[in-house]
Structure formats: structure tokens, C-alpha cells
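Sample intake sheet
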Amino acid sequence: MSDMTRERAPFGARLAHAMNEHGPLCVGIDPHAGLLNAWGLNDDIAGLRAFSFTLIEALGGKVAAFKPQSALFERHGSRGMGVLEEVIAASREAQTLCIVDAKRGDIGSTMAGYADAFLADGAPLAGDALTVSPYLGFGSLTPAVEAAVETGRGLFVLCLTSNPEGKQVQHATAANGHTVAAEIAAAAAQLNESDKVAGQLGSIGLVVGATIGDAARTLGVDLHAVNGPLLAPGVGAQGAGAQELHDVFGQARAAVLASSSRGVLNAGPSVEALQKAAFQAADEARIALRA
């Protein structure tokens, strides 16, 4: 264990502190070609860098977390990945948590390779947390879980997403009679058990869409028992208000980290307008999640 790891509090504790200080909002850094164009930027490396660093300048130290979408950097090749490395480093310098949205999932040595790339101390692509896919079996995530625990980082495991296609897998019933989504949530809860005993938020979270209605309840998914952060696209201006959040998350609302991308990004490129949009989104999420 490195000296850096020994000094780093677990991700769940750091995220809880950031949410208390800045509000339960995560801002996506999503450089879609259309957004770059709307900001008056070219869809190239210079535009990618200008877009990303305008966001960090505007919101670094002012929101709970950033969430760069890896695919939108990867599409620019190795130079795009270089910008992603810069974004992760700049988020660290701005003292803002960085959730790398790469949704990695594989088996054996390949999953171990992803863990080394995104979760190991000293790795250029290692932020504070990583999104992962459990659909090769939750156990396939073991290298990532072990790396996250070892280095004080976190994971957000896809559980109940709002895209219609997700139901085919997530709502399916396993041989034991439990739904796939319920099994994923239960596995995360087990990993967070020691943090629950210590009265802390665990570091193994879930991705749960804020617009899924009563799916968690009807599918037997106990989100409150997870005791981990719940990354929730779709809060506030994106569609889910207080009643919808009550239906989706119930007693687990305090653990929800609302994820906003276009709702904030569409206000750019003005730094002042981005700040205003982010502060409004954070206030809306705070009010809705405490109702």
C-alpha cells in the first residue's frame, strides 16, 4: 500500500463530505460534437480541451463531482485519451472528485487490466471512482473491487438504467427467483457491510436511473440496504422531481448523487452561466432529495 493510499479516506466518506458541502450534484463532462459546436468549438483536440477546461475552471471546487464520459474522449484516439488524463489530473488539482464514466466490464486478466488502468495509484486514468458493468456476472468485477478497496477509490455498478433495452437483462429473473437487478444490489450491499457497521457510506455504489418509476420496488431491489452512493441520471430539469425520486429511491434518497450533463452544459461556454446552471441544479437536487 502506497503512502498516497494510506492518506486517502475511502471514496464513500469523501463523497459524503463533498455532497454535504456542495450539494448532491455530479456534473458530466460530455464533449458531444453537437455541444462543441454549440459552444463555438471545433470537434477536434483543441475543442475537446477548451470545452473540458472551461468546465473545470467554472465548477472546480464548487460541485461534488465531475463525471467525464470516456467514450467521448476515446473517439479522438490517443490524443483524446491524453486530454482525459489531463481532465482527471485537473479535477484532482481542483479538489473535485472525478468519476470516470467508462463502464468497463470483462473477465480475468482483462478485468484486472482495466482495474490497473482506472483504479491503481499512479495510473494516469485513475480518478476517484469508475463506472463498471456487472453483466458478465458480478464476480467478474472482483479485480476492480479489490483495487478500489485497496486504493480508497469507488465503483458505480450498473444496476437499473432508464434505457428501455436495459429491462431485458436487469428485470430478468435468475434461477433463484431473484431479479438480476436485485442480485446486483445485494452483492454491492454485502461489499459495503463493514462500512455500515462503522456508520459510513460505502464505496461500492450503483447506477440507478431517476426516471425508472417503481421498478426498484417491484423488482425487489433494496436500495437502502446497499449503503453506497446511488448515481442517478435524470434528476431535476431532466425529468425527476420530488415525487418521482420518492418512488424510485424511497429511504435511500440521502445516498443519491444526481448526475446532470446537458442540463448544465447547455448553459456554456460562459463561466458565469455554467456556474448559475450548476448551482441551480444542485439546489433542485437537494430540495427534491430531501422532500
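Comment: The first strand starts at residue 25 and ends at 29. The longest helix spans residues 271-290.
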